[in-house]
Amino acid sequence: MLSEFVITFRESLEAALIAGIVLSYLIKTRQTRFNNTVYLGIVAGIVASVIGAFAFSALAGGFEGSAEQLFEGITMLVGAILLTTMILWMMQQSHIAQELHSRIDEKIMQAQKAGIFALLQSFSDI
To answer: Which of 21, 62, 81, 115 suits 94 as a labelling partner, its CA being 20 to 30 A distant?
Structure first.
């Protein structure tokens, strides 16, 4: 039980870190009108996680005896491999905040262009 809590807590911290980076950058660039989009993404992620947990519980909850132990062992092994791979990947990604800032700038520019186009379109309809 403790290992599941630690993994869930770690993943939650990572998600909060990314959301915090995005939100702080939006505040820094005075683009706070996109904050609701970030919040919507956070809520969508939580909902998807809960649905996935219930689905996984329904599918994997019926094992007993040696089948249960085998399933748990394989699941732990896959989890350890995924975490190790993620840690190694994160060690190589020292510039991830800069890439996030660039992607956010890109999306903001696309949204602004779409807004300007809609504004010009509305004036041409008059």
So the answer is: 81
The C-alpha atoms of residue 125 and residue 66 are separated, in whole angstroms, by: 71
Helix then strand then coil, in percent of the chain rounded to 5, is: 90, 0, 10
Q: What is the pLDDT of residues 47-64, one digit of tens each?
A: 998 898 888 788 777 777
Task: Tell me the C-alpha distance between 5 and 114, whole Å.
Answer: 43
How do residues 61-120 score in pLDDT, each as one tens digit?
A: 777 788 888 888 998 999 999 989 988 887 777 677 778 788 888 888 887 777 766 656
pTM of the model: 0.50
Q: 19-25 long-range contacts, Cβ below 8 Å, gap at least 24? A: 21/97, 21/100, 22/100, 22/104, 25/100, 25/101, 25/104
Three-state SS for 51-62 is: HHHHHHHHHHCC
Amino acid at 63: F
Two tokens at 6? 């630690």
